[in-house]
Design a protein that fits this description.
Number of strands: 0
Largest sheet: none
Oligomer: single chain
Number of helices: 4
Length: 112
């Protein structure tokens, strides 16, 4: 539920800056971090559902499915962001920055 608008001048200025920032992101087709997080969560839920269904039915070998599972989470996350209005390039860049951490291997290429 949205918070009520503040009447404190300092908070009003902050809200205006945030609105301008979000407008710039939207104009550039760049997702916000929270959009990326939601997309990754949705893609992960889809992948887990696919994995459990396949394992239960005996159609998937757990060892062979790991790489495919990770690749599909990344690709589906990017697709969700693009479908929500983000550009492919900006969605890919933000997704990589959110998922990357020091010392980890590079993410697989994102294809559409």
């Amino acid at each position: 539920m949205p918070r009520p608008k503040s009447t404190v001048p300092r908070l009003l200025r902050k809200a205006e800056r945030q609105a301008k920032y979000r407008a710039r992101l939207q104009d550039a087709g760049r997702p916000e971090a929270s959009q990326v997080d939601v997309a990754v969560a949705a893609a992960t839920a889809k992948a887990v559902r696919w994995l459990f269904t396949g394992l239960k039915d005996g159609k998937i070998d757990e060892r062979d499915s790991r790489r495919f599972l990770l690749d599909s989470i990344v690709a589906d996350s990017a697709r969700i962001l693009v479908d929500s209005g983000c550009s492919q390039e900006e969605a890919t860049a933000k997704l990589r920055s959110r998922l990357r951490s020091a010392g980890k291997p590079r993410l697989p290429p994102i294809t559409s």
